[in-house]
Write a structure and sequence with these properties.
Three copies of one chain form a homotrimer. In chain A, 75% of the residues lie in helices and 0% in strands. Chain A has 155 residues and is mainly α. Chain A binds chain C through residues 1-2, 4-5, 8, 70-71, 74, 80-82, 84-85, 88-89, 92, 95, 124-127, 130, 134, 138, 141-142, 145, 148-149, 152-155, and chain C through 5-6, 8-9, 11, 13-15, 17-18, 20-22, 24-25, 27-28, 30-32, 45-46, 48-49, 76, 80, 84, 87.
Chain lengths: 155, 155, 155
């Protein structure tokens, strides 16, 4: 990691910034999507979220679990579990000064796999499509982690 | 991003460090708050967490779902879903070298909105107060993401 | 934070990269562990994940909640709630230029405590072993946050 200081100003770091921001924005959109499903299906988690105007009993019935809402939430949770490791490991990886082409390959594979994962999960498409999309993201992150550990190992 | 190296040593980066740490600490406190509710309401998720001394049957009854505990947990989850994107995007944003006043505005709005969000969620106050607090945080993060993408775009 | 630029190229930053990557990899392994429990116990969250070949009714019965699967998922969630704050605060802490020995102590304590936390949670071992492991991680992160705030405070 000798040339790290110069690296932070590099095309690799700009590419990381771009792809990390895009995939974080994608993850953030799962929040509004959950709200959309909650509002259209009238399924809420809190009493204060149910629409005013209905009777207390009607509103209480809206506090329930809905399969479509749970699906969006699982998709969001899977993003948290995978996108955040990518961002952390990807940042450290970008600072190890990899080749631009190699870095772009990692970032594009990961971000592409997460977009596919979301589409497959929400449709839903039959397995193993979701499993494969998830796997591509995992392998990409592991590959970057391997470079970080082999370049910067200091225990 | 030409002057990134000098930027990391700047007031903007110190401001980011300060606000990011404060809002992460706030998020971390949701953990102990969950434990507090679990212990005072005697509601647990694991058998090994129930108090020793009770009969096995009494302890099994404590493995249940409680509305107050679930409310803290949803609040914590909402923090994970919003604070972490802020921290990631905010770090990249700080490295694009924004004006100090503009950066402070973003950081203060976001961190303020999350404190308000937590108070509103825990009281709870009527909607749309929580929705608004959440929205301010989202818009702030989107605004920073916009600057990162327009400054550092490299696909 | 005057000498931050030189710090990023230091042994402290390499140590941070190493420990952050290791603990993120540990967290990521909770995903495959959940899949392993789901597949061996035949407990799924989505219809499309249930094995082909069974009747629709048999497959529907596999959409249920299993205590072992939920345990892994709680362990994973606890990692998200604790490891991510460590990574964020640890990065900022590494940039404040702490002593190498002090930084290594923080990183080793945190990462060690999270490995112990996972083992204790999965066995499970009796309390307060899990509470203590969790506490060590919290205190370590708070200690680093204290240094960040006292070194870089800019409100």
């Amino acid at each position: 990691m000798a040339e790290v200081v110069h690296m932070i100003d590099s095309e690799v770091f700009m590419a990381f910034s771009t792809y990390a921001t895009i995939v974080i924005l994608k993850m953030m959109l799962m929040g509004p999507m959950t709200s959309y499903f909650r509002l259209t299906r009238k399924v809420f988690a809190n009493m204060e979220d149910t629409p005013l105007g209905g009777s207390a009993e009607d509103r209480k019935k809206m506090i329930r679990v809905d399969p479509d809402v749970e699906r969006v939430r699982r998709c969001h949770q899977n993003d948290l579990e995978n996108v955040i490791p990518f961002v952390v490991v990807g940042l450290l990886y970008a600072l190890t000064g990899p080749d631009l082409s190699s870095a772009l390959l990692h970032f594009r594979l990961f971000v592409g796999s997460r977009f596919i994962h979301t589409v497959v999960y929400m449709m839903p498409l039959p397995q193993p499509s979701r499993a494969l999309a998830w796997m591509v993201g995992m392998v990409t992150t592991f590959s970057m982690a391997y470079r970080v550990l082999t370049t910067a190992l200091f225990l």
